[in-house]
Design brief:
This protein is an alpha+beta fold. It has 3 domains: 291 residues, Beta-Lactamase (2-Layer Sandwich); 160 residues, Heat Shock Protein 90; 148 residues, Rossmann fold, CATH 3.40.50.2300. It contains 18 helices and 26 strands. Strands 1, 2, 3, 4, 5 and 6 form a 6-stranded antiparallel β-sheet that branches. Strand 1 and strand 2 form a beta hairpin. Helix 7 packs antiparallel against helix 8, helix 7 crosses helix 13 and helix 14 packs parallel to helix 15. The longest helix is centred in the first third of the chain and has 80 residues. It is rod-shaped and about 165 Å long.
């Protein structure tokens, strides 16, 4: 034995090859789930990516459409502004040819305003035409009388023409007219002639231009402005104020450079981040700016994007929900498949064990029986007595091992009744403390209020005993094992390591150790028969497999929480019972026989001779027969002679239940006890159908046989005396002395 291996976890032994198939099967589940999750996540990501790309492309298309609209409107307005400025310029050119000095007479000079008004007719954007003389005074005006000689010569349109002889047409900044009080800007030219003789100027009606721009609906957050070449706003659709602040268009003009038109993005003081199209007015020092807030341009797009996002979210959320539902279904399927696989392994194990259990139990029966007889005739202080005791101990261990193996093939056997959990824990504690290593402490924490669970007491005892033994073996000295119990209510369904919890009331039993813990790979295999982490020879690998079967038989659940080096907690969830535990009957005393004739039937001569000696020592008159045919012949010869029949179940010429039917035809009232090393999962049903009163599991102890015989004989005497209302044999065979297949789980 390798002493360097750490103490392990029961679940046990070293059969490895069958686990390879199980490991491959377990690996396929996570791989399939991973592939499915990756596929669904990738599909959802592709859907989101596609929606994102479509949304961004739609955004670009929306902005491009807005840019085209701005460019088209700016182009049209630039043409309109060019025509308006051209018409105004033509009037100025005609007015500049007028010579005020050619009308010296007062009456003739008075006719000039009418002449100027005739020039203005048909040009609605021009509010007023006027002439300035070189002395910076208003010389003549198309305005009504009373405005002549008003000093309006401090305007830039006068000084620019005066100071720049070759200026040509000049466009002024906007201002408030001193004649009308309205906002306006002026176009001016020099009067014809040598030297500076004055200027002709036309006041443009900004309100007229604004009304024209207002007729164009570009949506909320839009702007249309007529700009001077240096960026000064001449006309703004949004307001008629005269702005003294620096022009917000200087950056745009710098970006425009010498180009005729350009679309750009800029920060506007009113619009914020805006998309703007600039277009020069052909032939004139002016530009048209058409723009709209990017926020407003994308308003419809945002609403559509949110709808697309919501639709995509619903689609992907539905896919995620379906994935989760499918994964849960897959997990349930894998759990059921794993349980089926485990059941198949246990069934195969039971079938294999059943094939050898009968013969092996017959051998053990001979060893145990003759050992007990030998002890009766041996002095207690002799060396032979010590040798015989060791033989019986080894044989008993072998019997218990076979019984545990056979238990795997008998799922569901056992009666469910209310069981006091504290009593089972106390029994397990007492049993464990007797063999507890000195450096390990066993602590029991249970409530004072009774906890009653539904189940088979023998199976629950065996389950808890295996868990505690498993915990003790996993702890290195010094260490600690805790048994803790509590009643609780599970308010949500969930899966456990073994079984599934529903919304119900449970008793939870925790077995906690401070041992070496287990890895995830070990936890996956601890319930496999013959798997163990212990050194070779230190474990059978059947303890936790037995626990697995008991948990499933009781519709219970088992959760394993562990980590390497951090100890382990096994939490068993047992359904609570509705009623209270039944009162235990007083143990039946072993009553010796009174010369009753007992027919013994077995196909093993050694067992027949052994049983004859045991029954004779108990005060009975045994009659042994080798096989069912010989027993039937002997019984036919004298049916009234025998008080009871004890028969093996599996015999070559006739089975025990078949023999019982034949005997019943000869003597209906004779009580029959069947013995079996392994009768299969249907043994109880077969015994009931045949009419047997009891079933004993081989190998037998003398006390078991004596107690069971006394019981069935007493019952037979009661029926004969009229104390029983039954006219035939007992309706249900019983397993005497706790030797039922169910109780064999607890051995």
């Amino acid at each position: 034995m390798d002493s360097t291996r750490p103490p392990g976890r029961a679940g046990d032994e070293t059969v490895r090859d069958p686990a390879l198939t199980g490991a491959a099967r377990r690996a396929r589940g996570p791989t399939l789930r991973l592939r499915l999750v990756v596929f669904v996540v990738a599909t959802c990501a592709a859907v989101w990516l596609s929606a994102l790309i479509d949304t961004l492309q739609d955004r670009d298309a929306t902005l491009l459409m807005a840019e085209r609209q701005h460019d088209n409107v700016a182009g049209a307005l630039a043409e309109q502004a060019a025509r308006a400025l051209q018409a105004t310029d033509l009037i100025l050119q005609q007015a500049a040819l007028l010579d005020p000095d050619a009308y010296p007479a007062r009456n003739g000079r008075a006719a000039i305003p009418d002449l100027l008004r005739r020039h203005m007719s048909g040009v609605p954007q021009v509010r007023n035409l006027f002439l300035f003389d070189p002395a910076r005074h208003l010389h003549l005006s198309s305005a009504p009388a009373g405005s002549v000689n008003a000093d309006l010569s401090d305007r830039s349109y006068f000084t620019a023409q005066r100071d720049q002889p070759n200026l040509g047409l000049y466009v002024s900044e906007p201002f408030i007219s001193r004649l009308t009080g309205d906002p306006t800007f002026v176009l001016s030219r020099r009067l014809a002639g040598a030297g500076f003789r004055g200027i002709a100027a036309a006041a443009v009606d900004i309100g007229y231009m604004r009304r024209f721009y207002h007729a164009l609906d570009l949506g909320a957050g839009s702007a249309i402005e007529l700009l001077r070449a240096d960026g000064v706003t001449l006309v703004s659709r949004e307001h008629g104020r005269i702005e003294a602040a620096p022009s917000p268009w200087l950056g745009a003009l710098a970006a425009l450079g010498t180009a005729e038109a350009r679309h750009m993005t800029l920060e506007h003081p009113v619009l914020g981040r805006a998309r703007v199209g600039l277009r020069r007015v052909p032939g004139y020092p002016a530009l048209v700016a058409v723009g709209r807030s990017e926020h407003e341009i994308l308003r419809v797009w945002r609403a559509k994007a949110w709808k697309n996002a919501a639709r995509t979210f619903v689609i992907t959320a539905l896919a995620a929900i379906l994935l989760i539902a499918f994964l849960r279904q897959l997990e349930r399927h894998e759990r059921v498949t794993a349980q089926l696989h485990q059941s198949q392994k246990l069934e195969a194990l039971g079938t294999l064990a059943g094939g050898i259990a009968h013969d092996f139990n017959n051998m053990l029966g001979a060893v145990l029986g003759y050992g007990e007889l030998a002890i009766k005739h041996t002095e207690a202080a002799s060396p032979s007595r010590r040798y015989l005791d060791n033989i019986l101990v080894a044989a008993t261990r072998a019997r218990d091992l076979v019984a545990r193996i056979l238990a795997f093939s008998r799922p569901g056997i056992g009666s469910s009744a209310p069981v006091m959990l504290q009593k089972i824990i106390a029994e397990v504690r007492s049993l464990t403390c007797a063999s507890l290593p000195a450096g390990i402490t066993l602590v029991v924490e249970v409530p004072s209020e009774p906890i009653v669970v539904a189940g088979d007491a023998a199976q629950l005892h065996q389950m808890l005993a295996n868990l505690v033994t498993n915990a003790v073996q996993a702890v290195t000295e010094p260490g600690r094992v805790v048994i803790r119990a509590a009643a609780l209510e599970v308010d949500a369904e969930r899966d456990c390591t073994v079984g599934h919890l529903t919304r119900a009331r449970y008793a939870r039993v925790d077995v906690i150790d401070s041992g070496v813990g287990m890895s995830a790979a070990q936890v996956e295999r601890i319930f496999d028969p013959f798997f163990t982490t212990k050194p070779v020879g230190s474990g059978t690998g059947l303890g936790l497999s037995l626990v697995h079967g008991i948990v499933l038989d009781h519709a219970a659940a088992l959760q394993v929480d562990t980590q390497p080096g951090g100890g382990t907690t096994f939490s068993a969830y047992l359904p609570l019972a509705e009623g209270q535990p039944a009162q235990e009957p007083a143990p039946m005393a072993v009553v010796p026989g009174n010369g009753e004739a007992i027919l013994l039937v077995d196909d093993e001569e050694g067992l027949v001779r052994l049983a004859e000696e045991v029954l004779a020592s108990l005060g009975y008159e045994p009659v042994g027969c080798l096989g069912a045919l010989e027993a039937l012949r002997v019984f036919r010869a004298s049916p009234e002679r025998f008080d009871a029949v004890v028969s093996d179940v599996i015999m070559p010429d006739m089975t025990g239940p078949e023999l019982v039917r034949e005997l019943r035809g000869l003597q209906p009232a004779v009580p029959v006890i069947l013995m079996s090393g392994y009768g299969g999962p249907d043994l109880q049903a077969q015994a009931h159908a045949a009419g047997a009163q009891a079933v004993l599991m081989k190998p037998l102890a003398a006390a078991e046989l004596a107690t069971c015989l006394a019981s069935v004989l007493a019952e037979a005497r009661g029926r004969a005396a009229g104390f029983s209302q039954q006219s035939g044999p007992s309706r249900h065979p019983r397993y005497c002395c706790g030797a039922s297949p169910a109780s064999q789980r607890g051995r």
